[in-house]
Amino acid sequence: MTTIQIIKKTKLFCDYCHASKFVTDQITGEIICSSCGFVISENAEDRGLERRLISNTSDTARTGPGLTLKMHDKGLNTRIGVQNKDSVGKPLSAKTTQMFGRLRKWDSRSQTKNSAEKNLRFALIEFDKVQSKLGLSDTVVERASLFYRKAIERNLIRGRTVKSIAAACLYASCRDLEHHRTLTEIAIQFVIKRKEIARAYRILFRELGFTVSVVDPIKSINKIASKIGSSEKVIRKATQILTAAQDAEIIAGKNPEIMAAAAIYAACVITGELKSQIEIAEAANTSTVSIRNRIQEFKTKLDLFSTMI
Question: How far apart are CA 102 and CA 112, in angstroms?
Fold first, then answer.
């Protein structure tokens, strides 16, 4: 049965009779002139609120969220509401509440059909946990979810932990979208060893054919400098040092965090700012020996350090 609703006077006018009163067919979406029957518009979108409220909120919109790779079913499933109330807001009885509790449990279990979907769901939960801790955007997490789905299709999860593959996918996503996060930072949040992530990342790189850019150590300067409270003068000098190192082609193959830490320490020495190697090494999650080795390389290959003590 077609539902007709009368629309009161609006700013629209009929092209034939110039009337300003219309009716709309809520099923077909047609807007019709009430005087001559001329169809003003077809497939008009109803932006009003849902008349039959079936969720916990009183202002349910007609449209839901878009598709997202952050959910194992891409957001297409339906769930039983968490509030134990009926359609008019009246609390459910104890027996009915217990029944819906069991239904929610089985509804949650039924969303995964096999072990692959269970692994995917677990990985997406891990992504959601570390997203805010690492300050990552939804785009990074969705790209990591896409990589994980590809890993499942290639059967790369078998024989490996879900966390290691998930962490490797997240690291690959950060590299791909140029969100600088180190393996150590990701390993801390996933509570696994850095070597496990590195091993899983190499497998993904080989099997999925990633094309990621080389990490620019200059992007690590601000992060390390903010942790130790260095001045803007030190940051500029460290940037100059790394730029000169890139021109001298001594950056490739080196850990970007260590290169940035060494440049910051060298900049502190040149500018006279008192910062210890231990303090900088802790901020960069590295060792003082690694920093000294890079500084020695700077001294021998860069003219910039000819006056450095």
Answer: 17
pTM, two decimal places: 0.63
Q: Does domain 115-208 have CATH number 2.60.120.430?
A: no
What does DSSP assign to residue 304? G
> pLDDT by residue (tens digit) across 280-302?
999 888 899 999 999 888 888 88
Q: Which of 297, 292, 242, 302 is nearest to 267 (CA)?
A: 242
Tell me: the pLDDT tens digits for 121-175?
888 889 988 988 888 888 999 999 999 999 988 989 888 899 999 999 999 999 8
**Region(s) of the chain under CATH 1.10.472.10:** 115-208, 217-305
- Give the long-range contacts of residues 241-249, CB within 8 A, separation 24 or more: 241/266, 241/267, 241/298, 241/302, 241/304, 242/217, 242/218, 243/218, 244/302, 244/304, 245/298, 245/301, 245/302, 248/301, 248/302
